[in-house]
Amino acid sequence: MLFTRTLLVGASLIAMASTAYAADLIVDVPADKPVAVAGTGWYLSVFGGGVWADSVEADDGSADFGQYFDFGTDIGWLFGAAAGMHFTDNLRGEVEVSTGSLGLNDVTISGGLDPFDGDTYDVTDGSASTTYLLANVWFDIDTGSGFTPYVGAGIGAGYVSASGTIGGLAETVDLSGWGWAYQVGAGVKVDVADNIALDLGYRWKSIVDANLEGGGDDAIATIGSHVVQAGLTFGF
Predict the structure, then answer these.
(1) How far apart are CA 161 and CA 127, in angstroms?
(2) The model's pTM
């Protein structure tokens, strides 16, 4: 009888000791720290790229005997910055400021009373500078990874400054003014670090009906151009 009680007491002590030891082995495991990505909240983007003009056209604004100018261009450049925020997981809006420049190398003049209607003239020291102030909306396509394609568009105002000397006519022009502007585009963002994404994109940019003035001359100009750009987006 005594032996049986001794066994029961010993078994109880062993069970209590085992429970206490097991409790000592329970440790708090910290939760995984979430990885910050560049696709939420506020963000800032900087970018730059090459510009190919599809059309640089102007007319003198005259209803009768008006002249029309179609400029040939060199490859140019553009750079800028944008600040925005994500409204939803897919939709974001931003304000963009960008500026660029194209070289003007020749011009074809038509219309008016010019006896050489349709002739092309060289342009010396010719350039067309552009500035865009745009409100953009982009739609991000969620792929469940750090690779995010997007599409979108923007609208706003554009400033044009054009200058050069038209050979054969010995005429120098230096005009500038504002018009309305828009863009459409697409691209892809690739997360490269916490809160930083590489942005590769294409844009079609245009400034329409810019009223240019200077030196007693005036013209109405439209510029359309292709832009291939790369940049970085920083999330906050």
Answers:
(1) 8
(2) 0.80
